Predict the 3D structure of the following.
Amino acid sequence: MTHASALSSAVALVSKRMRVPREAIEARSGKVYRFPLPEVALARRTAIYLASCLHDIGPRPLARAARMSPEGVRKACAAIEDRRDDPGFDRFIDSLAEELVAA
């Protein structure tokens, strides 16, 4: 699986489960969609985190696939790791990971 296809699979699942339009998750910064930005940011970070962890993709190749900087990828992953301290959110991420692996 290529880095881009790993990210695309994660984005598709996150879009469905978090009910955030795929177009909003994939949008380059600065493009505005009529959807609350915190939800879009969380969905994007979640997809990046899942692609990174499940497919062992480093920040540089994932950054190219996501059209962002490697530092942005690291920050996205760190933000999700921090939120995993919440047991409910942790279970949600685990369920997404299980579903992505099963697909």
Observations:
- The domain at 3-102 is CATH 1.10.1750.10 (Chromosomal Replication Initiator Protein Dnaa; Chain: A;).
- The radius of gyration is 12 Å.
